[in-house]
Amino acid sequence: MKLKTFFIMAASAISFGTVLHAQDNPWGLVYEQAITENIPGKVNIHPVKYNLDGIEIAANVYTPADYNPQEKQYPAIVVAHPNGGTKEQVAGLFAQRMAENGYITIAADASYQGASGGEPRHTDRPANRINDIHGMADYISTYPGVDPQRIGAFGICGGGGYTLGAAKSDKRFKAVATLSMFNSGRVRRNGFMDSAMPTIQNRLKEASDAREKRVATGEIVFTGDMNLTDEEIEKLPFDLYCEGAIYYNRTHAHPNSTFRYTMESLMDLMTWDATDQIDLIDAPLLMMAGNKADTFYMTSDAFEKATGTTDKELFLIPGATHISTYFVPEYVDQEVAKLTEFFGKKL
Length: 347
Known about the structure:
This protein has helices at residues 3-12, 90-100, 126-141, 158-167, 184-190, 200-217, 230-234, 239-251, 266-269, 296-305, 329-346; strands spanning 44-52, 55-63, 74-80, 104-108, 146-156, 173-179, 222-223, 261-262, 285-290, 312-317. It is an alpha/beta fold. Helix 1 (3-12) crosses helix 8.
């Protein structure tokens, strides 16, 4: 699906055919039907900050309409955003929708990214992203009204791969779900759809050189910039990248959202894989993906290798591509309904 077709679909899925702008929402939210004010008796949003191993994390907590921590305990869900994303985009959408269904939810910007701290900026290492998910669990487990025995984990795109990584060891997560899971290690190592395997050693050399340059001169080398023209988007070889460029740079753009990351990060990314030791996940597992997504091979591979749990389900969304699972109402409604059913039974 190329630029014009997807842009029309994206615009038509947003009220009045307009794009969403961060400055139009008091919390910078860029998803349809986002909260615009906190009203007693409705789902509310609570911006919070907390310390994670010396880094200040910026997050949003969503509380359900009947929130009464003095009289009731609630299940909670941590939501991990996609690569390049922020808490104000698709992660916030699902955090809000699940709060509408009775959960206390948290969506945080990854460390070194978004509004969270950490230097050098845009460092993208699996260990950091996984620790961010542990950190969300740390924070939400003591949030007023949360039942610490009923915490679930939900990750989208790259956040889905890192959620699998976190769930291997973090047994606080009693149920685990992913949407359009993206195995960042495999893609950074092998290329998308394993298209760049002949250049693995060259790219590792570039990452090593970037580290050497930082040590010697202090200069940081970056890669992954995606601020493309319409013509450049049209030439992208995969639907994921074409649609992603439209979503992140056009219809749902956020000033903190960027695909830029340090070249040095590849030294860690390329030696990690979301499916390594995935059999350590013994919690109920739900993996969702569009049946037309060119990323589906990653969900399928992880699902097959997740042999540590017999309580697992693969849920396909008919007609959906990877990025369209983020915002198209008919797809989001199906996904939220499935998540509500899954977490309702497992938490």
